[in-house]
């Protein structure tokens, strides 16, 4: 066995002890007291004549350098000291760098700020100042390396991580300026310091070098086990009534799922806890105040102390203490839901958090009223501050659930029903992954600060689950001291606890976007509250995986549309602002903010292919009515300004809200025209404006209690009108949105107003039920065109068919696609397969987990098949190449009949496997698809955007017959081109009634110009390859619309010639969305605006023709 000689408090001794524990090396520890000079004793000098520590002995081998000890012990320890020569060299490099460069630099800070104060000496600032430039240079090298890798040499911890971290082991006391190095800080505080082996060596260091901190180590057991009252997440809402009523007799109350959990004593690492990482911190707070039973005195004298304490510890610019609660033994029998004397409470033995994502802002408005809007535009947070009163706390201490172990999915709402209002807390569902901390035997000088709400969503802690618990280590005669979900002050002789609720605001934020995603119905384009936790999760993932700046500075200035001068254009805009109102006409002259799905820009394409300023608008107008739209159109004709209308601008992957012609004015219809004008439960129809999303329609139908479904696409945040006009699909049996629309209201490019179908008949009552009317059907010319602005549309809704049941099959080989499609075709045409089902390539199974590509594969080029399959083997699906997601509809006996036929047919393919949904975890992507196929919009589809940094996607969407050979051809086209351009293949076949849509999502790093060029080249090649074999795209990104339109060139481009005639007749001045879907008005035609298969760097042509004398309204 290895004999180790050291003092655990020294840098290199701690390095070796933590490293050996991490390696799992068995050793015998021999304590050599550094402070008494034992390392200079004759016995120790026989082992190490250099009188340095540590040293190790293995038989007749003596090892006298800390890194050498680690190298010796790690020789057969796999990834911690790899055998591969290149990987081992990488580890050795950092070991040598630490010993020769990093340790000496950090040691200066240790001596000046830690050792000298212990010796009653003053630090020498000149020494620090002389070393600082070198330390910062070295730290920058570390930070750069850790920006590329999780650990120093890759995805796995090695002995190099322990070695390089060791010189910083007292970084707070050393006053190391880590705040300038985010990647280094993340690695040290969130990874190294979270290693149990590192934490186990902390106490000895604190005791020897930080006596002030050691004094707070209260000497209790390191871990204990106790019951925590979690809550079961059932279909019924979880509620508490604070008054007696009939409804309160039949509710699901919280705390019905107790579990024994391990609770760790946090004193050994007290200084390392942070309200932004774990969600809580512990520290010192001394006060001379002692009138705890006098509420007025508490408010007048003690509240100001809390304010100053929080300003100093959180950096808040403003603090408001607005409440406190006393908990006493005499209140033990008082009910939690008692209405009166709420400042006197018993302990809360329930895992909970005091606020939700919605109730936090509501509370700010209640407290701050007129100031609330200003505060909520910045950062606002709530804290609880807990502090004992007179003596040590021995019973029912407060425990906190480490935020890093509790994702938002573990929280759900508890509704608090009062006579005059409804409040919200979070309760938590049980997870064995939860990590609980407590600080036993707290004294009056000690305080816990925990966060119960934070508006910032950049990945920091926002909600902390907490609870009182029965501490089995408490003496039998200890007083019962509870807690409230706020600040706690505990007293042994008074048997009281004391709480405050604190809100602070006006803090700087690193994000230019609002802290929370917009929420429906407060925002027409927001996410409903049932999905808010998913939106927060996805935004946090995207922000953490973003290296590209969210704001792009403008290099080319304001984009002025071709054919008009700058001053003339600005004068025309002023004229429009006078008519519509200045707040409804906004110039686009600020830096371009990319945002994300729920906070998308209406200024440019945030998923840029070219430079962001190529597809940028000049201004945006927000009409509030059809009459406003007509005003804007007539204004554009008068000044010959190109317009680009959008419903909501969420056509991401196809251009978003960006105009095809640079400098166009965006007409954003959705912001002010977002009404659901009618829902008819008898005919199962509705009439909507452009700003109505699938989320909004679903929520309104549920609110009214109707048994109708919304046919929703993968994400429900887009406009129903916009998606339908783009020939979008949903996943119920009503999947083809265009086929289920009935009646349009359209503002023509001249400003005239038109209603199609039965809407042309005054006083009709069938506009939303009969789509044709009399005469030619004109609706089609307004889809995927630039012939008019749709302001209203009728939509058919699907009645509840009596239930549905989703199912999933996997198929092992890529060539199984051919027989699978041929099996699907007759089943789909016969309507045994009823909905627009999906056949997904297995790569997407990994991507929708939300994990990054680097988690699975770090090489270049598409992820290799064997790597893909090895990772799939660890999933519930196992090894496979294709996954079929389908749904059957109707009563159970009908579903069973159809599903038996499907099973019989699908299992004709060798190796086909039906996945039992009951074997899938609740967060598996299957359950999201099941909701969508059942008419409930969800929010999972963005998870794959985290695959690469700065995730963006582009859609390649050709159509083919539902035949195996055709599907195989398209798949091989995509696969070949993706391999050429080093792009992972995200491919789904959507099965229509008689046609197959191949939806190929090209996910790429929009921050890399090199990847953007590769994606464009791949896309253009696939368009040409597909067209040559007779496959055309049904939808494409605006920069590829010219190329796709040119592939539809039968009979000397007869279709395009027809479209151009329509365009010139309906839009004689060419002001409406020129170039959209490859249709250019006469003023732009043949002037170099079209972008062909070769591509190019600019989106612009050579100006426009001057208006002809005959062109007028």
Question: How would you briefly describe this protein structure?
Answer:
With 1113 residues, the chain is α+β, with helices and mostly antiparallel strands.
Describe the structure.
This protein is α+β, with helices and mostly antiparallel strands and 1113 residues long. It folds into six domains: 2-210, Glutathione S-transferase Yfyf (Class Pi), Chain A, domain 2; 225-294 and 324-335 and 344-353 and 381-490, no CATH class; 529-668, Uridine Diphospho-n-acetylenolpyruvylglucosamine Reductase, domain 2 (2-Layer Sandwich), CATH 3.30.43; 679-799, 2-Layer Sandwich (Uridine Diphospho-n-acetylenolpyruvylglucosamine Reductase, domain 3), CATH 3.30.465; 804-1036, 3-Layer(aba) Sandwich (Vanillyl-alcohol Oxidase, Chain A, domain 3); 1049-1090, Orthogonal Bundle (Vanillyl-alcohol Oxidase, Chain A, domain 4). Helices cover 29% and strands 19% of the residues. It has 29 helices and 43 strands. Strands 35, 36, 37, 38, 39, 40, 41, 42 and 43 form a nine-stranded antiparallel sheet that branches. β3 and β4 (61-63) form a beta hairpin. α1 (11-23) runs antiparallel to α6 (159-165). The N and C termini lie far apart (96 Å). 48% of the residues are buried. Residues 1092-1113 are annotated as: Disordered. GO terms for molecular function: FAD binding; oxidoreductase activity. This is FAD-binding PCMH-type domain-containing protein. Residues 608-800 form the FAD-binding PCMH-type domain. InterPro entries: AsaB-like (IPR044053), Cytok_DH_C_sf (IPR016170), FAD-bd_oxidored_4_C (IPR004113), FAD-bd_PCMH (IPR016166), FAD-bd_PCMH-like_sf (IPR036318), FAD-bd_PCMH_sub1 (IPR016167), FAD-bd_PCMH_sub2 (IPR016169), FAD-linked_Oxase-like_C (IPR016164).
């Amino acid at each position: 066995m290895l004999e180790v000689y050291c003092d655990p408090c020294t840098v290199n001794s701690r390095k070796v002890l933590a490293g050996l524990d991490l390696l799992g090396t068995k050793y015998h520890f021999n304590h050599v007291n550094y402070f008494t000079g034992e390392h200079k004793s004759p016995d120790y000098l026989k082992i190490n004549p250099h009188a340095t520590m540590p040293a190790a002995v293995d038989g007749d081998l003596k090892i006298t350098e800390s890194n050498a000890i680690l190298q010796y012990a790690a020789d057969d320890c796999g990834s911690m000291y790899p055998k591969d020569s290149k990987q081992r060299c990488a580890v050795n490099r950092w070991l040598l760098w630490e010993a020769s460069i990093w340790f000496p630099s950090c040691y200066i800070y240790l001596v000046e700020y830690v050792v000298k104060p212990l010796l009653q000496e003053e630090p020498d600032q000149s020494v620090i100042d002389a070393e600082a430039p070198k330390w910062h240079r070295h730290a920058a090298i570390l930070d750069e390396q850790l920006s590329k890798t999780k650990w120093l040499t890759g995805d796995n911890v090695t002995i190099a991580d322990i070695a390089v971290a060791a010189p910083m082991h007292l970084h707070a006391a050393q006053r190391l300026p880590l705040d300038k190095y985010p990647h280094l800080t993340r690695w040290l505080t969130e990874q190294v310091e979270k290693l149990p082996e590192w934490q186990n060596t902390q106490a000895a260091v604190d005791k020897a070098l930080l006596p002030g901190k050691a004094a707070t180590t209260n000497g209790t057991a390191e871990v204990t086990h106790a019951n925590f009252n979690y809550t079961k997440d059932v279909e019924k809402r979880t509620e508490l009534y604070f008054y007696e009523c009939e409804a309160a007799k039949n509710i699901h109350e919280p705390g019905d799922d107790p579990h024994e959990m391990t609770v760790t004593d946090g004193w050994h690492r007290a200084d390392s806890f942070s309200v932004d990482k774990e969600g809580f911190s512990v520290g010192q707070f001394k006060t001379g105040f002692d009138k705890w039973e006098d509420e007025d005195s508490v408010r007048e004298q003690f509240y100001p102390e809390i304010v100053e304490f929080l300003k100093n510890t959180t950096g808040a610019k403003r603090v408001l203490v607005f409440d406190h609660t006393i908990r006493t033994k005499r209140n033990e029998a008082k009910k939690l839901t008692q209405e009166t004397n709420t400042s006197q409470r018993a302990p809360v033995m329930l895992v909970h958090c005091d606020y939700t994502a919605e109730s936090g802002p509501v509370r700010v408005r209640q407290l701050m009223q007129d100031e609330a809007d200003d505060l909520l535009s910045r950062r606002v947070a709530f804290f609880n501050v807990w502090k004992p009163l007179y003596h040590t706390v021995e019973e029912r201490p407060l425990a906190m659930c480490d935020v890093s172990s509790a994702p938002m999915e573990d929280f759900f709402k508890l509704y608090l029903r009062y006579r005059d209002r409804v409040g919200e807390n979070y309760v938590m569902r049980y997870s064995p992954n939860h990590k609980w901390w407590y600080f036993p035997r707290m004294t009056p000088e000690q305080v816990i600060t925990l966060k119960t709400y934070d508006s910032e969503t950049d990945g920091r802690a926002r909600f902390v689950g907490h609870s009182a618990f029965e501490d089995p280590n408490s003496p039998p005669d200890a007083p019962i001291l509870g807690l409230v979900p706020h600040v706690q002050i505990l007293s042994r002789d008074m048997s009281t606890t004391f709480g405050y609720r604190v809100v602070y605001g006006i803090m700087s934020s690193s994000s230019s976007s609002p802290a929370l995603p917009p929420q429906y119905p407060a925002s027409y384009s927001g996410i409903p509250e049932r999905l808010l936790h998913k939106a927060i999760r996805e935004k946090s993932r995207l922000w953490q995986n973003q290296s590209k700046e969210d704001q792009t500075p403008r290099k080319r200035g304001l984009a002025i549309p071709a054919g008009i001068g700058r001053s003339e254009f600005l004068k025309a805009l002023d004229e429009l602002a006078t008519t519509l109102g200045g707040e409804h006409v906004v110039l686009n002259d600020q830096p371009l903010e990319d945002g994300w799905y729920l906070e998308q820009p209406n200024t440019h394409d945030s998923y840029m292919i070219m430079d962001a300023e190529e597809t940028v608008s000049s201004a945006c107008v927000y009409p509030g009515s059809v009459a406003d739209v007509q005003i804007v159109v007539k204004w554009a004709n008068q000044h010959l300004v190109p317009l680009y209308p959008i419903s909501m601008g969420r056509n991401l992957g196809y251009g978003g809200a960006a105009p095809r012609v640079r400098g166009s004015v965006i007409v954003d219809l959705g912001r002010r025209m977002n009404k659901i004008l009618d829902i008819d439960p008898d005919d199962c129809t509705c009439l909507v404006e452009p700003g109505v999303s699938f989320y909004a329609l679903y929520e309104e139908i549920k609110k009214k209690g109707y048994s109708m479904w919304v046919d929703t696409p993968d994400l429900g945040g887009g406009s129903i009108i916009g998606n339908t006009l783009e020939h979008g699909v949903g996943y119920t049996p009503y999947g083809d949105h265009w086929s289920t629309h009935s009646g349009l209201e359209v503002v023509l490019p001249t400003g005239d107003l038109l209603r199609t179908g039965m809407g042309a008949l005054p006083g009709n009552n069938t506009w939303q039920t009969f789509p044709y009317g009399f005469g030619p059907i004109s609706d089609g010319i307004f889809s995927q065109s630039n012939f008019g602005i749709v302001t209203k549309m009728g939509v058919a809704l699907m009645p509840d068919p009596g239930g549905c049941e989703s199912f999933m099959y996997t198929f092992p080989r890529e060539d199984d696609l051919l027989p699978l499609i041929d099996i699907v075709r007759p089943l789909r045409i016969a309507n045994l397969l009823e909905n627009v089902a999906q056949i997904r390539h297995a790569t997407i199974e990994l991507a929708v987990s939300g994990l990054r590509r680097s988690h699975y594969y770090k090489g270049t080029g598409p992820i290799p098949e064997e790597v893909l399959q090895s990772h799939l083997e660890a999933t519930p699906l196992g090894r496979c190449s294709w996954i079929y997601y389908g749904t059957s509809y109707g009563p159970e006996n009908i579903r069973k009949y159809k599903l038996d036929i499907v099973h019989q047919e699908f299992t004709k393919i060798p190796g086909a496997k039906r996945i039992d949904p009951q074997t899938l975890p609740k967060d598996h992507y299957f359950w999201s698809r099941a909701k969508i196929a059942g008419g409930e919009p969800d929010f999972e589809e963005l998870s794959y955007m985290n695959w690469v940094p700065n995730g963006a996607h582009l859609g390649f969407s050709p159509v083919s017959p539902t035949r195996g050979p055709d599907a195989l051809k398209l798949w091989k086209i995509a696969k070949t081109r993706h391999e050429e351009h080093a792009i992972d293949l995200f491919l789904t076949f959507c099965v229509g009634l008689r046609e197959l849509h191949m939806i190929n999502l090209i996910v790429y790093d929009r921050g890399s110009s090199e990847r953007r060029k590769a994606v464009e080249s791949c896309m253009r090649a696939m368009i040409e390859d597909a067209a040559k074999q007779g496959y055309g795209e049904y939808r494409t990104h605006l920069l590829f619309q010219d190329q796709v339109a040119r592939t539809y060139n039968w009979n000397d481009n007869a279709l395009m010639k027809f479209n151009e005639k329509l365009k010139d007749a309906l839009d004689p001045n060419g002001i409406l969305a020129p170039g959209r879907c490859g249709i250019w008005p006469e003023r732009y035609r043949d002037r170099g605006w079209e972008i062909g298969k070769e591509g190019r760097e600019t989106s612009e042509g050579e100006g426009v023709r001057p208006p002809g004398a005959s062109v007028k309204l």
